[in-house]
Write a structure and sequence with these properties.
eight-stranded mixed beta sheet; four-stranded parallel beta sheet; alpha+beta
């Protein structure tokens, strides 16, 4: 180990130092190509990504300390605990659209994501999303990562059985089906999004279709306008659809083109995952204002230790009220403004960047104001010169369990997949073996324990 990394280990700041100084771990593009094209059904996938999504995958991994991973998991457990409180559900469903009050038979919602920034005081949960993309792509990326110097070889070589992650994702869908339909066989899945072939993450739809098909489940990629509800059954052409993997960003299924899917959902003609109720309980940004309101948490009966975890692990968030416009404008430089039902950082603004014209729109819209927490930084080599990129950390969660952890590297105000050298990045976690001052590394994401 070189002297700078040895010093980092001794100081306990090894992850930060590695993010700043380590360029040894690089993406093996040939290995990634093999991972993506392992099946004839995805034979053109790597070229499709290169042509359409050239900045989907970062060149380098991100390092996170085991302590920070544990802290993120603790915040996730705390949120899940509060979501189970009837008083919390009553509060957030009161401002949700009526469809959110429909409770499906058993589905919980696949691929919930908890997204964090690594602040000075530790990880800070900046938002929760339903139908988060990238999990299968990140699994392939992690398998393709390689070490190109002897000191780092142990980081990627079989530390975690990454091949089992895909099976874990498949089992999640099978669990959703079993919770909803018991012992009936799952025969068909539709991966649904508007104009799916035009979506940025369409390559991942192809991976999911291959995953389902390879395990005996008929799978199609479909636009919701292609679906029809007849005689209590949802159809895609001549095929009956048992389960819909929902990648739509119309979280309440309000658009006309989604009418058949909406009707199938509320009549229990199909298992929909994730669904509008999951979005209302978790992903509406106004919920973060509830989760950072100490008085409300106490009124709900939340135990002190859970309250403490939430208040220290989520930046204080408040609903933007025009009655408090002057106060919020004066404090704007320390705030980040987001629409309550936004996704992909759309129409989100750093307070120090907004103009009066944008501010008027925020006051008229349905926004929250969150204390600004800077993202982490990862340096990359750009023409032999280090360049600092920002990153956030995404925890893929199902039923309260962290299944997989990945990062997104970028330049600019928010994640964008337009930054050379940026994109999805695998996460490695560090731990120190104090006896020898040897840096040991485990691959994270890790599979949740059974």
């Amino acid at each position: 180990m070189n002297s700078s990394l040895a010093a980092a280990v001794a100081s306990g700041n090894e992850a930060e130092s590695l993010n700043r100084d380590c360029f040894c771990i690089s993406l093996d593009r040939d290995a990634l190509k093999r991972a993506l094209q392992a099946d004839p059904e995805t034979n053109d996938l790597y070229q499709l990504i290169r042509d359409r999504c050239p900045h989907l995958f970062a060149n380098l991994p991100v390092f996170i300390s085991a302590r920070h991973l544990d802290q993120m998991a603790a915040v996730i457990r705390a949120v899940e605990a509060v979501v189970s409180f009837p008083a919390y559900r009553d509060t957030v469903l009161a401002w949700a659209p009526p469809i959110a009050r429909f409770q499906p038979a058993g589905a919980r919602g696949v691929f919930l994501s908890y997204d964090f920034h690594l602040g000075a005081s530790g990880p800070q949960l900046i938002e929760i999303n339903t139908n988060a993309g990238g999990a299968l792509l990140n699994a392939a990326l992690a398998r393709a990562q390689r070490a190109c110097c002897a000191a780092m070889e142990g980081m990627t070589a079989g530390t975690i059985p990454l091949e089992s992650i895909d099976r874990t994702f498949l089992d999640m869908f099978l669990t959703e089906w079993r919770l909803s339909r018991g012992t009936r066989a799952l025969r068909s899945i539709a991966i649904v999004d508007d104009q799916p072939e035009q979506q940025y993450l369409y390559p991942e739809f192809l991976l999911f279709r291959q995953l389902f098909s390879s395990h005996g489940v008929h799978a199609v990629i479909a636009d919701p306008a292609e679906l029809r509800l007849r005689d209590g059954v949802l159809w895609h052409g001549d095929a009956q659809i048992d389960l819909v993997y929902n990648r739509l960003t119309d979280f309440t299924l309000e658009q006309t083109a989604h009418a058949a899917l909406r009707e199938a959902y509320v009549t229990d003609a199909v298992v929909l995952t994730p669904h509008p109720r999951a979005h209302a309980l978790y992903a509406d940004k106004r919920n973060l204002a509830v989760l950072t309101d100490a008085a409300r948490l106490r009124a709900f009966g939340v135990p002190p230790e859970i309250e403490s975890t939430l208040l220290s692990g989520i930046p204080r968030t408040q609903v933007v009220d025009p009655a408090h416009a002057d106060r919020l404008w004066a404090a704007r430089r320390g705030l980040f403004f987001k629409p309550a039902a936004s996704y992909g950082s759309k129409a989100a603004y750093r307070g120090d960047k907004i103009t009066r014209r944008v501010w008027e729109g925020i006051l008229k819209g349905n926004y929250v104001a969150q204390e600004f927490v800077p993202p982490g930084e990862r340096r990359i080599q750009d023409h032999q010169e280090p360049l600092a990129l920002k990153f956030d950390v995404r925890n893929y969660v199902y039923d309260g369990m962290v299944q997989f952890v990945a990062a997104r590297m970028y330049q600019g105000q928010t994640t964008n997949f337009r930054t050379p050298g940026g994109g999805f990045a695998p996460v490695f976690t560090t731990r120190m073996l104090s006896d020898s001052h040897t840096l040991a590394l485990d691959v994270a994401p890790v599979l949740a324990a059974d």
